[in-house]
Amino acid sequence: MPGGYSWHPIEDFEADPNSLTDGEMESLWSRQKSELTELQTLDEFSKRLRREWSIETGVIEKAYTLDRSGTRTLIERGIDAG
Predict the structure, then answer these.
(1) I want to staple 70 with a disulfide (CB 3.0 to 4.6 A). Which of 20, 48, 60, 66 is the partner?
(2) Is the pTM of this model over 0.70?
């Protein structure tokens, strides 16, 4: 290999993961989750988020190609045979 690189196994990250954040995102999600729970929309939000991750993963893996509007439609409605 160029430059005399010597392979070595990946080592565990030694820092405490909590030391890498100021907690702002956790606080933000906590407030948002409370609001979604009060509105009784947390389940729908979770379903749409899972659909979005699945669709985007398929696009990244080139399992299929979708334009942005097609992706949005699938996220909002899911796949319905009807």
Answers:
(1) 66
(2) no
